[in-house]
Amino acid sequence: MKALLALEDGTYFFGTSFGAPGERAGELVFNTSMTGYQEILTDPSYRGQIVTMTYPLIGNYGVNEEDFESRRPWVEGFVVKESSKIVSNWRATASLSDFLKDNGIIGIEGVDTRGLTKHLREAGALKAYISTEDLDPVSLVGRAAESEGLIGRDLVKDVTNGETSEWCTNGSYHVAAIDCGIKYNILRLLEKAGCRVTVFPANAGTEDILSIKPDGVFVSNGPGDPEGVPYTVNTVRELIHMNIPMFGICLGQQIIGLALGGKTFKLKYGHRGGNHPVMKLDDKSVAITVQNHGFCVDIDSIDESIVEITHINLNDQTLEGIKHREYPVFSVQFHPEASPGPHDSLYLFRQFIDLMEKKRAEKN
């Protein structure tokens, strides 16, 4: 079945459909990871986006539920050069094509993803439409241009779990995790570090979170514009001044940044992939990091009398990490939980544990 990918600027690509038929709009972005497509597909941070993979052959090891990052896939569409027809991994329970079809996700292959990525590098992330039904380029380009973008939009409400739940009930430290679209591997690593984890929906209030008397608060990753979730920003602002250890990742950093008086902005094409170099400023060490964000805290909006800048992106000098000078609060823009990607930054989970240990010692 033929499929068409149309961009708001008039560019379009014909290809072959794999996965589910239908139509879907979203912001078109690219990811430079060579592996990890099922973690990408099930990452809630991709809500509202059509993802193109720069690596040409995708799907060769199939799909298995053990490596999911949430309860289901969230991408609006998936674009690849070639979808492997052969599944060659003993852990696989389904092919990529069947997985997409079963979950209503439209895939398109046979696209020049190198040319598409080069175009996005020049033009920036663009609104797009993917369809197996409307194959008229003029029509679909117009629909892409008229579709809803991400700025100011609350996509967190779509991905957050609506109820408070227990991820694990044993652990030395009780962590309240604010779920803005939290990845499972973050929860796995908190559990592995010895934390009991209670997961709260993104709209939970300060009193709800304080009711469990947490040793620490975690603010998760998630999709879209951080300015679209003022309710979470307000809660985090209040919790910061409670002097409770706090750790944020990705959208969590943006929310903490806004709560501390900073501003956020939309990057031209975002950072998505498993090969982004980040410098830790205190010792000048460099980590290769996993990234997935289209928005960023404006480094010039940070009040450095209150907040210390801890990490910088070496590709474009954007802000990658901060910590409060008075309160036990820190965050990073990248993904130390490494799903998929390198493990260079796992020390940050130990840093969170250390803050909770120190706070407990002070109380005693």
Short synopsis of the structure:
The chain has helices spanning 37-41, 96-102, 113-123, 137-146, 156-159, 184-192, 206-210, 230-240, 251-259, 347-363, and strands spanning 2-7, 12-19, 23-31, 49-53, 57-58, 77-79, 82-83, 106-109, 126-131, 165-168, 173-179, 195-201, 216-219, 246-249, 264-280, 285-297, 307-313, 319-324, 329-332. With 364 residues, it is α/β, with parallel strands linked by helices.
Total number of β-strand segments? 19
Give the spatial strand order of the biggest sheet: 10-12-11-13-14-19-18-17-15-16
General form: globular
The helix content, as a percent range, equals: 10-25%
Low-confidence stretches: none
List keywords for this structure.
19 strands, single chain, globular, Glucose Oxidase, domain 1, 364 residues, Rossmann fold, 2 domains, seven-stranded mixed β-barrel, alpha/beta
Q: What does the model show?
A:
- With 364 residues, the protein is of the alpha/beta class.
- It has two domains: 2-146, Glucose Oxidase, domain 1 (3-Layer(bba) Sandwich), CATH 3.50.30; 156-363, Rossmann fold (3-Layer(aba) Sandwich).
- The protein is built from ten helices and 19 strands.
- The chain has helices at 37-41, 96-102, 113-123, 137-146, 156-159, 184-192, 206-210, 230-240, 251-259, 347-363, and strands at residues 2-7, 12-19, 23-31, 49-53, 57-58, 77-79, 82-83, 106-109, 126-131, 165-168, 173-179, 195-201, 216-219, 246-249, 264-280, 285-297, 307-313, 319-324, 329-332.
- The chain has a ten-stranded mixed sheet, with helices on both faces. Strands 1-2-8-6-4-3-9 form a seven-stranded mixed β-barrel. Strands 5-7 form a two-stranded parallel sheet.
- The radius of gyration is 20 Å and the shape is globular.
